[in-house]
Amino acid sequence: MMLKPPCFTDYYSSFLCLPDSFSGEGKRVFQSSLRDIPINGRYLYSVIFTEWNGFSICSTAPEFHEICRNLFDGSSESVMRIFRVLSQDMPELGIDSFRRYFASSDSRMDRGEAVQLTPGLVSGLKFNSEEESRGYILRKGPLFEQGRQFAIIKDRRIASTAFLSDISGDAANIVVYTSPEFRGLGLGRQTVAACVEWCRDQRLIPIYLVRDSNVGSVRLAESLGMVLGSFESIITDRA
């Protein structure tokens, strides 16, 4: 018997740290230790404002919980008030709009030329130096071990790559990068498709978080038939 795939609604409720009994009434600010964990080891999303079943929600790192609880009322004005208060002491903070996409279709995606990266494959590629090649293999070791990084190779160089940077619960976060000279050729679409297929084989929800202003990434998600799961305002660490 085929097992039922994980549900985005369940994932997102857990991601925001909403209680099972949440009905939208009363408390709308929730603290979560997940807000203290950088995505891809780099991007810290300390406070997330979003909509859940028609209700405005704030999911915040524990250290900002009191400020958010006192100021958040669901309005965009209260979001900016919270940002101004936090950024007074932490000028490195920024705020931006994001789209959280996920893949839900059961149909298989065409990964095209995308291949799974391995240490052996990477060792045969061109880098600026042998030291850079060794450093790349060492840094990407956990991804290679689990087979969760994919790439398209052109002239023995990585033209485009995508990988699952973080796995939390039933979901995995997709990161994609295409070298400037190869953009606009659909290579990123193929590497992301390979990541989606890997997630399906592992029974994980593929998550693709993109800035609303990043037109290329938005188009990529929509070209793959990804579903817009949420629209979020996020207070981030610019560093």
TrEMBL record:
SUPFAM superfamilies: Acyl-CoA N-acyltransferases (Nat). One of its GO terms (molecular function) is acyltransferase activity, transferring groups other than amino-acyl groups. Residues 69-239 form the N-acetyltransferase domain. It comes from the Bacteria. Pfam families: Acetyltransf_1 (PF00583). InterPro entries: Acyl_CoA_acyltransferase, GNAT_dom. This is N-acetyltransferase domain-containing protein.
